[in-house]
Amino acid sequence: MTASRCRPSPAPPSRVWPNGVVVLEVCRDSERAAGHIKGSVHISIHQLHKRLGEVPGGTVWVHYAGGMRAGIAASLLDSAGRDAVVVDDGFDSVTDVGLNVIAG
Question: Taking a C-beta distance cutoff of 8 angstroms, is the pair 87, 63 a contact?
Answer without folding.
Answer: yes
